[in-house]
Amino acid sequence: MNQFEGNITTKLPQTGTSIFAVMSGLANEYNAVNLSQGFPDFPISDELIELVHHFMKKGYNQYAPMPGVPPIRKALAHMFKKNHGAVYDVDKEITITAGATQAIFTAISAFIAKDDEVIIFEPAYDCYAPSVIVNGGLVKYSQLQFPDYSINWDELPRMISSRTKMIIINSPHNPSGSIISKDDMIRLEKLIKGRDVIVLSDEVYEHLIFDKFQHESVARFPELASKSIVVGSFGKTFHTTGWKTGFVLAPENIMAEYRKVHQFVVFAANTPIQYAVAEYLKNPKNYKSLSRFYQKKRDFFLSSIKNSKFKPLTNHGTYFQLLDYSSISDEKEMDMAVRLVKEYGIASVPVSSFYRTHDNNHTLRFCFAKKESTLKKAGEILCKI
Fold it and tell me: Cα torsion at 29, 31, 35, 41 (round to 10°)?
């Protein structure tokens, strides 16, 4: 194909191929055990597959209503009322999306204009900052405090200005597995009181929380919820990441603006999957059992590496485990991650890739959403390093 001969002005000059694609590509090239990208390698529910097939066969294959089909919105309203005591209007305050990344991009596009400031906590999932920059916004970074990845409450209030329009939070947190506490939420609620600041709360791992901790959704705090957009993911919840089905919840006046953009970004999400998930959500065990399911996998992985030189950092959620390798090597994280693939046959993600300045804490992220046989093999490899 002949190349475009004119001038191309990039909106994302610092952006290249995602670290997840890079590490998974290396894993494939070297036939490595892939604990880098966050996707399960075990089967999904047969019941859920049958439900999708059922609704396809019944003819639910055309465009869904722009906000999502009524049964799934009703199921979400019921779930959030039961789990968090929050009341969201089925018709006006819940929208189904083509995954969480689309939901986040749409939320930022709807509310961020040129020179608006958005506060992001680093290490941060890689879609936040580019979404702000593409829309002309300015990113202000607050570093979570290593090694527990807690919010720096001395720094955060000083970062807010008259131009601050959004704060993005993520709990349970990718990549660290840390969680935001009830006290954190109360402090955030007080901090933005009286300010025109929207909280974008990425809660895609809401059902993957361990050690008897409770997920503190913004939906649990009425005043904070009135200024917040909640983002969730059925792909993360039901290990169906390729289905790209998520949701947002927000007060009516925020959702009205959100939908103005949503309708032109994706219009509607996958129809038969929406109906299938709505039916599947009728049994709370299908999501309430996930914490125990993934905690067992986390504990199995940690047990498999207990004789290694890697030091696990505290993890209370998600399906990612951070390992400190400082007693093994002083290499930079990217160099260490690449060497582990090439020399030992195991793929991870350098946590430095979640920082704009590639901060180096000698820490790698491993995904434990895998079969026990995969985790056992990974453990055997890590114990040899």
Answer: 110
